[in-house]
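User: Predict the structure for this protein chain, please.
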Amino acid sequence: MTRMLSPGADRIVRPALLGVLFHDAIDGRPVHGDDLVVEAIDAWRADRPWRLNPSRSGVYGLHALRGVQTLHDRSAAPEDLLESPPPADRLSLRVRDLAGRYVATRLNPDWPSGDILRVPLYSAVTRPAPLGLGSLKVDLRRRTDTDLPACWAWLSLHLGASVLAEGPADEQGRAQLVFPLPKPREGLPHGSPATAEALLDWTVTLHARWHPDRRPDAGEGAAGPAAE
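Assistant: Here is the predicted structure, written as structure tokens:
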């Protein structure tokens, strides 16, 4: 039986193999637009990455991949879209911000997926710190050779038992951690200027994790801590 589609009422639905929503690690707002370059890399054709474009809601969708069905009934489970089980490391995403706001990253997402993957983007050293927030910039070098950067290291800034901020370094070992300023400590209401300034001082601890396999030419770092 042949069914005619009614204009304005019927439409063909092609479920995406993967949907990714990027958000700012500081305030959680969605990040998308022309400055955010998101490329899908198929390990079967690694020399031919292609750029993904966001939807009106800011979701970057992957709709086609070699050997994978892309037109299927909406009620089908995501894994039913595959003609054969995919290699776990076949697909990766490379993310770069042309405006210099965020550290580049590379992801190896699970696909196909019926849920939208939410990925935080972390501030680059070239991004001005938002008003009202503190900022710590560091340049990490390897202890065995201080001329070499500790690229793609994962950092976390602690105040006592609290984690103020965390994020990755870039390919040059540079990182910026942005965090809300702690509340001033209580002190004498009529203390000297030196006493008042001391109430705004805090002792923090910076933790950094890095692995020798993380080289500048090894590709962008992961979106989370992957090295111990």
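The helical segments are 193-198.
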